[in-house]
Amino acid sequence: MKILLINTSSFLSGAEVSMLQLLKNIDATSFEIFIVLPTSVQYQHLLPKNVKCIKMPLLWITRSFNPFYLIKYLISILIVMRKLIQVINNEKIKIVYANTYKAFFYVAFIKFFVTDCKLICHLRDNFKSKRLHRFLISQSDKIVCISGQIYKQVIVSEHKKCIIYGGVDTNYWKPEKYLKNILNDNLRLRKDTILVAQIGQLTSWKNHVDFIKAAAEIIKSYPKDFHFLIVGDDMSGKEKKYKKRLNSEIIKTGLEKHFSFLGFIKDIKAIYAQIDVLVHPAIDEPFGKVVIEAMAMGKSVVAYNCGGPKEIIVNNQTGYLVKTDDFKAIGEKVILLLKNEKLQIKLGTEGRKRVIEKFNIKDNIYKMEALFDSM
Question: DSSP states of 198-256 as a string?
Fold first, then answer.
C-alpha cells in the first residue's frame, strides 16, 4: 500500500518525532511511504532510507493575521496541491496522511481531483474554531486524535474518528545510571544539587511561568540546594517576547542563580537521566510526549490535572496531578517527592509500567498499521 505523508514543519517538535518513529517502525514490506516536507526542512537526514522524500514550498501557518503572508500561503497551497495530485496519480497513492491539521490545508481539496484515495488527518493540537471543525469533518475520511482531550473536541460519528496515543520505545527510554554530576559539573553546581526540570519547546501554552512560580515556592519552603532547568527552545522563532517574559519573571522572583535555560538538547535522554523530578504545568496539553518519556525513564512527574497528562498519569500511583493553575500545589508535590526517596522510586517504577502497558511504540505502530489497512 502506498501512502503519501505531508508535514509542514521544518523543525523538530513532538509531531515530527512521532512521525519519524512511525516511519522507522512501520512494516516496510506492507507499506511504501512517500513524504512531502518543506524545502527548508532540518531533519531530512533522520528519515529512513526506504522513505522517498519530496520537497515542496510548504509554509507554516501562523496565528497572527498578515494579509501579505496569507496571499503567499494561498498561492503556496495551489502550487503544492497541483504537485501533490501529480505524485498521487503517478505513484498510484492510496492514502494521503496529513501529520497535523496544519498540513491538512494542503491536501483538503485533493479529493475533488483524485477520488480513489483516502484522506487521514492526524490531530495533535487543540482546535476550537467551528469553521475549521466543520472543514476537517467534511473533507477527512478518518480523523486520528492523539488523546481523549482532542477526541472530545471532534464532534463527528464514532466511526470517523479514533484515538491513537503517542508512544515511546521503552527499550531506549529506560532508567539509565548516568553520573548525575555530569550536568552539575557543566553548570558549575555542587554535586548534591537537586535538579528539577521542565522540558518542551518555548511557547506560551507550555506555561513555564507557573514552573518559575512553583520554583520560588519550593526554595522558600524547603531549605535545600536546588537548580531549575528549562530545556527547549523557541523552535518557530516567534516566541521571543515569551522568552523575555520568562527571564523577567525569574529576575522578579530573585531566582537568577537557581535557573538555567539549556535550549534545545539533542541528547535529551541524558537530561532525563540526571534530573530528580519533571514538572509539566502546560494548560490543556494535547498529549504530553515528555511526560511518557520521563515516566519510561523511571522519573517522577508533577503536572496539572488537565489535557493529555490527565490521561497519562494515574494520580498518586504513577505521578502527581494537581489542580490547574495551582503552582503552590506543584511546589508541595515536588517537596514531598524530594523528602522521600522511596516514594520517588515507587512512582517512577509504576510510571514506567504504565508506559509499557499503554504508551509503548509497538502498540502505537500496530494501531497505525491497522488504521491504514482498514482504509
Answer: EES---GGG-HHHHHHHHHHHHHHS-S-EEEEEE---SSS--HHHHHHHHHHHHHTT-G
